[in-house]
Design goal:
alpha+beta, two-stranded antiparallel ribbon, binds zinc ion
Length: 85
């Protein structure tokens, strides 16, 4: 058994060691989540993945902007090798 504190009324609640999921507090009848450490690590990992995808998307966006800008510059007739017209 494991003794935890209700996040709503701060009463002590006894749960099985292997218990995880949604529980109802017997004192205030509010629901609360209790689980294994895996459930707390996974959102952290997926948030890193989202940040990494966002970083990559930003890089690609900047790359496309640079390509578009150089194409537009060529379109307006800038043929200078150092990019200054
Ligand atoms: Zn409670």
């Amino acid at each position: 058994m494991v003794l935890i504190e209700c996040p709503h009324c701060a009463e002590d609640i006894e749960l099985d060691d292997a218990s995880f999921g949604l529980f109802e507090c017997p004192f205030c009848e509010e629901e609360f989540e209790w689980g294994e450490m895996d459930e707390e690590i996974n959102p952290e990992l997926s948030r890193d993945k989202v940040m990494w995808a966002f970083f990559n998307a930003t890089l690609v966006f900047i790359l496309i902007l640079v390509i578009l800008f150089s194409l537009t510059t060529d379109f307006f007739g800038c043929k200078s090798p150092n990019g200054v017209c």
